[in-house]
Amino acid sequence: MLKRIPIQHLTLGMYLHEFCGSWMEHPFWRAKFLLKDPEDLARIRATSIRECWIDTDKGMDVAIGTASISWEEVDAQSDTDFSAPENTPPPPQAIPPTPAPRNHAPTDIDSELQMAAFICRQSKEAVVSMFSEARMGRAVDTPSVKNLVQDISDSITRNPDALISLARLKTADDYTYMHSVAVCALMVALARQLKLDDEQTRVAGMAGLLHDLGKIATPMVVLKKPSRLTDQEFDVVRNHSASGYQILKKSGNLPEAVLDACLHHHEKMDGTGYPDKLKGDAISLIARMTAICDVYDAITSDRPYKNGWDPSESLRRMAEWSGHHLDPRLFQAFVKSIGIYPVGSLVRLTSGRLGVVVEQAPAALTTPVVKVFFSTKYDLRIPPELVNLAAPCATEKIVAREDPGHWNFPDMIELWSGFSEQVW
């Protein structure tokens, strides 16, 4: 039996199954071993890692009463992160910006944020229509799906940070649709990081856009339930992958890989997922990619019953599931595609100033562009200033992630996005 415990409860004789943290945070080339050497225990306690998984079937158990947490709880929660499509409000009446011409030239983050906001609005409307059509039993409009994926892919090519970051911002009512858009964008970025060809990248984007279509067949009373679901209700929710597969199969004109991702994006590397309990490489590449992108967007999004985790904290937590739930090689590529400190992350610099990440550095994961705006030394706001940590003259570096919930800055989103409120 696997148990997640604090490092201070780790003792000799326990079987270490996995560290809860990044693969870069510990000095061991292996993670699974029986802890017998006191020096190994001391080295573990000297790292920044605070929790680990132990296997009580292969080593000692913790004392009775020590808390343990299962990754299935978060996975089950992400399954129900779908609000009622019928409750979606009409689009805002603000005049949209003029659509940008399709091109692949790189753009600065501010310019691409404006274009990405327009693409998000268009994408949401298209997904609303697609879900409505599917609910009435009509086939998925494959050409429209391809065009939508192409627009998203073009934005990712010009500047990978903008659309991925904006698509994370959702209200409870538009979660259904923006989740599909966000997972599509994340899939395209991951496909590019893996150097998949254009057709494979397009298929990955389509899989992200359509992976949760089957939830239109799940009763709203179950999807909207704000409290923990019963086992019977979980079974109902878990049928969405098979329902989506059947809906897409009836369309008859979608790549098989897209159907497979819809059916198997809740499979786990250790064989404990659903619906077929596939294990390891028996799960297709596209399905393993979709699992990562789906979980990341679900846990970073605000829901009526929980606040989304900070992007950096989400990656830390996902690292804990890498290996038994998520493909570790693909997860490493995913981190490289969005950064160790994704856009929107609150960080502390060596000077004690706090800032929010606004853009990634192409060549390094740990040196993004940060907009500093608060001094912890004087405990007050300071004029916002962009600091490029990758610049040759840079004298600062990130020393810690910060919990936005602790600081409760009311304008965090505006600081990194430039938008003061929901833009779609």
From TrEMBL:
Domain HD-GYP: 152-350
UniProt-listed Gene3D superfamilies: Hypothetical protein af1432
SMART domains, per the entry: HDc
Transmembrane segments annotated in the record for this chain: none
Source organism superkingdom: Bacteria
InterPro entries: DUF3391 (IPR021812), HD/PDEase_dom (IPR003607), HD_GYP_dom (IPR037522), HDIG_dom (IPR006675)
Name of the protein this chain belongs to: HDIG domain-containing protein
UniProt organism field: Acidovorax soli
